[in-house]
Amino acid sequence: PVSIFFRLDTTMWCTLLLFLIPICSSRWTSGNIDSRNQEAVVTSYDFGIWSFTLEDKAYRVKDAVVASPLNKFKEMTDGDHKVFEHGSLGNSIAASVLKVQQPGNTNVELHVNHQLGIAVSVNDKAPENAEVGATFTFPGAKGIYGIPERAVDLALKSGHKYRLWNLDVFRYQLEDTKGIYGTIPYLMAHSGSKTVGMLWNNAGDTTVGIDYNDAGIQATWTSLSGSIEIFFFPGPTPMDVLRQMAYLTGKQYFPPLFSMGYHQCRWNYRSEEDTLSVDEGFDTHDIPYDVIWLDIEHTDGKRYFTWDSHNFPNPELMQEKIAAKGRKMVTITDPHIKRAAGYHIFDEATANGYFVKNPQGTADYEGHCWPGTSSWLDFTNPTVRDWYATMFKYDKYKGSTPILYTWIDMNEPSVFNSHEVTMDINAQHHGGVAHKDVHNQYGFYQTMATYAGQMLRSQGPPHDTTTRPFLLSRSFFTGTQRYGAIWTGDNEAKWSHLEKATPMLLTMSLSALSFVGADVGGFFDNPPEELLVRWYQAAAYTPFFRGHAHLETKRREPWLFGEENTRLIRNAIRSRYRVLPYIYTTFYKSSQEGLSVISPLFFHWPADEKLFTLQDQFMLGNAVLVRPIASPRSDNHGNIEVYLPGEPGEKWYDFNDGTPYAAPQSHVIVCDDNKIPVFQRPGTIVPLRERARRSTTAMRNDPFTLQIALDSKGQAAGSLYLDDTHSHKFQNGAFVHRAFHFAGGRLTASEYTVTTQYTTPAAPVTEQFSTNTWFERIRIYGLTSKPNEIYLEHGDDNSFNYGGLQGVDAQSIKERKQLTFEFIDGVLTIRKPVAYLMMDWVITIA
């Protein structure tokens, strides 16, 4: 066996400072250590990331990591030691320093200055039983997080073993440490002053044991197959670790705006008439929504990429009617393929050998799923993925139109008549790879192929440019964030499942998977009306927002629960559309900087130990704090406790009425049926759209509101991003991103120029975006007295940078303009300033 130890203490830190020198040499990409006929390779990446790999013949995960190694290691000899020095870019020096010892060629000791402690043991067994393992110690850590997916607390618990093995678990149990639909083998350890992370790049059946002890927190990994490949993230903050993970495995893709609206789904809408009736119901009851979904019953006998000709005889006309209102549709395409001659997917896959093979490799693997006897496409094969992508072309997917998007389910994969309801671990994939080695990546590869299919279909008429894909997958792995959204699967209509949704979504988010949500109301069973309302109110602030229900539940459209509950649900969904400009801006920043859309509070206040286990609140972006209500009024009596962190003297503000609340302390918020606690962080500016519309398309030209929460210095900052909402033209500069700053009684608008070391470099500008959108309202929380006057001054016309204002004489609006306002209960509202988004301007409060 090979043992590797990482230690951290004050002495070690001081010792390692001797090696902190800039490294500019490009001679070394990796450092190699020969150990028991296995080559240990240490490789550097940007931002101080490095990896440790034992080179052997075991299967190594592909496609999860997208970053390229750097030529940043320099290897030197220091007596009996080998020293690897990892330089960094910019002005900082030595992001990592490794000191490698080889006593007797049986023990390798690596010291690292990033508060990481590790003991790694590799069990070198026979290839047919090649178990590998490692134990990592994080000295001083007070919390450890990650390794989704399961319905457990945010902070992982001592004494528990967590399994990472993607499974279709019927009515998954809360607090069960076994895995469910997806896996990201990633941990983040946090001490208050330091955060580090690691990725165990293995797609096999894995367990992680967590132990809190005097040395810190230990995580013991064991994988039943595959290889040892470990990546380390130096931090030093939670946000740094997340950005480093996103850099290594890919940032969240930037979805189209409609996908951030509300989605209506159930298993199943029965027919075209039923589907269009639901669509009309939203208009009748004045409730906005963007996407209606069709589950497996819409197909011809569970043959995906087909339609039931009796119930859906004219799918294109149905979609045209949906599209006329600016809305979209989603259909489901599971990975199992009905074994039926004459079904074009089956025929082509069979003729080309595109299915996973049985353990002997002599025939297609067969099992049972929704269509009956089925086989599974081998998405690990790039040729199969390329072929599958062509199935989304309009001439292949008959009845599909440009407004049709994709839901992929059952892709753990689920096999009804097999052990653990999944594929035989010895089934054979492309290249003779056993299923046990790639199991946790199977759904990831279907997601990759589906994304490619949506891209392929938009390359040509009727599209003038490629449209951004939207797809939802149940299964996931490291890197899935590059392709689609994820939901938490088949939850239940229980208060406990609403409560557990928050830590589940936060765990995925801190693991670099941002576009996440849970079925509103619970998939199984029928929710009490109060629970359904509270779920809508909470989910309105999560990245993915969809109502969904089981075939055997009662119909659950929002207007079926009485007039008062319809009003409450309408208000909840409208609250989502009101905050969409902020959500869209946050998604854009996530795609560029690697941050998550929602996050635990300790990400923002890492030294506050009250936050290390706090899981009933979350931050949306950096400005909005949300506290879902996950208990009935009979238990909480409408009194909801909220902890508001921050510096003494700062005040948070109720997001909707501006009531101030002091930080850092807990408050009991009185909530009626129409309210959950939502707060705006001091020092932030949030863009909103406050006109009620029936979809995101209908909001496209609406004016904006800026809502400003001042900090104790009377300052605030924020930004607003806007583009055409659906294409990839933003990658060529066709967007507007404006920065807003408030200080000294002046609100200024200018071009957003903030970048970090993690920001994706901008491409050359070859396209432009133009909009006449303006601000109809400025709302300020935190002013202490009523102003005497307020006036607007537009600056020089720089709108040509974005394509120019259309039909507006920029010079004519440059004159100083007195603004009307009101000051009530500490809230200043400036009405109709008509300040244009694409121009620089200043509003002065005197």
From TrEMBL:
<dbReference type="GO" id="GO:0030246">
    <property type="term" value="F:carbohydrate binding"/>
</dbReference>
<dbReference type="InterPro" id="IPR013780">
    <property type="entry name" value="Glyco_hydro_b"/>
</dbReference>
<keyword id="KW-0325">Glycoprotein</keyword>
<keyword id="KW-0378">Hydrolase</keyword>
<feature type="domain" description="Glycosyl hydrolase family 31 C-terminal">
    <location>
        <begin position="594"/>
        <end position="686"/>
    </location>
</feature>
<dbReference type="InterPro" id="IPR011013">
    <property type="entry name" value="Gal_mutarotase_sf_dom"/>
</dbReference>
<keyword id="KW-0326">Glycosidase</keyword>
<dbReference type="InterPro" id="IPR025887">
    <property type="entry name" value="Glyco_hydro_31_N_dom"/>
</dbReference>
<dbReference type="InterPro" id="IPR017853">
    <property type="entry name" value="GH"/>
</dbReference>
<comment type="similarity">
    <text>Belongs to the glycosyl hydrolase 31 family.</text>
</comment>
<dbReference type="GO" id="GO:0005975">
    <property type="term" value="P:carbohydrate metabolic process"/>
</dbReference>
<feature type="signal peptide">
    <location>
        <begin position="1"/>
        <end position="26"/>
    </location>
</feature>
<feature type="domain" description="Glycoside hydrolase family 31 N-terminal">
    <location>
        <begin position="76"/>
        <end position="208"/>
    </location>
</feature>
<dbReference type="GO" id="GO:0005783">
    <property type="term" value="C:endoplasmic reticulum"/>
</dbReference>
<feature type="domain" description="Glycoside hydrolase family 31 TIM barrel">
    <location>
        <begin position="253"/>
        <end position="585"/>
    </location>
</feature>
<dbReference type="Pfam" id="PF21365">
    <property type="entry name" value="Glyco_hydro_31_3rd"/>
</dbReference>
<keyword id="KW-0256">Endoplasmic reticulum</keyword>
<protein>
    <recommendedName>
        <fullName>Glucosidase II subunit alpha</fullName>
    </recommendedName>
</protein>
<dbReference type="Pfam" id="PF13802">
    <property type="entry name" value="Gal_mutarotas_2"/>
</dbReference>
<dbReference type="GO" id="GO:0090599">
    <property type="term" value="F:alpha-glucosidase activity"/>
</dbReference>
<keyword id="KW-0732">Signal</keyword>
<dbReference type="GO" id="GO:0006491">
    <property type="term" value="P:N-glycan processing"/>
</dbReference>
<comment type="pathway">
    <text>Glycan metabolism; N-glycan metabolism.</text>
</comment>
<dbReference type="InterPro" id="IPR048395">
    <property type="entry name" value="Glyco_hydro_31_C"/>
</dbReference>
<dbReference type="InterPro" id="IPR000322">
    <property type="entry name" value="Glyco_hydro_31_TIM"/>
</dbReference>
<dbReference type="Pfam" id="PF01055">
    <property type="entry name" value="Glyco_hydro_31_2nd"/>
</dbReference>
